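Exercise 3.2. Students should predict the tertiary structure of the chain below and write it as structure tokens, then compare their answer with the key that follows.

Predict this chain's 3D structure.
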Amino acid sequence: MSIPPSRLLVLAGPTAVGKGTVSAAVRETHPEVWISVSATTRKPRPGEVHGRHYWFVSEDEFDAMVAEGRLLEWATVHSAARYGTPRGPVEEALAAGRPAMLEIDLQGARQVRETMPEALFVFLAPPSWEELVRRLVGRGTESEAERARRLETARVEMAAEDEFDVTIVNREVHQAADELVALMTLGARPGPSTPRLE
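Answer key:
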């Protein structure tokens, strides 16, 4: 089955499913794809670079971005930090004719659907719930309380899969990245007629 190629792809999925890792693989192997960098009020994790992984901003700076309409979407995630997608760079990439991808959370994807329903909405799913738990614990970047909060959020996020146009199962990072790029540039959907890409 084929679908029309979409210049704007919105990627979401449960916490710890590997959205950032898959996005990094797209960035590395498909430089023609423009990937949005989110703004966030959370502190950087080890190895994260301001302007590359996220725009790390203060609460006051984030408030100003919201008040001035400079965010395409924003949300408070895990009952803690706020995340948002700067509007200007997305509009510039699309105006330049580049395939563009937003890697955002579920709340953000719902907001973008309201304002840009023509985008293609892709849910990145783990191979299993057990694998998702293993990945989250294996990161070692969160406290026990934070892990518990994220797993609770992930259960809610997993239940939203049906809201998306296509599901890609993240079994192998580069395969998932290639499937995303194919959806943006070719409109290709592997498989007979299922929207779930294994």
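Discussion points: Helices lie at 19-29, 59-67, 87-95, 106-115, 129-139, 144-158, 173-185. The longest helix spans residues 144-158.
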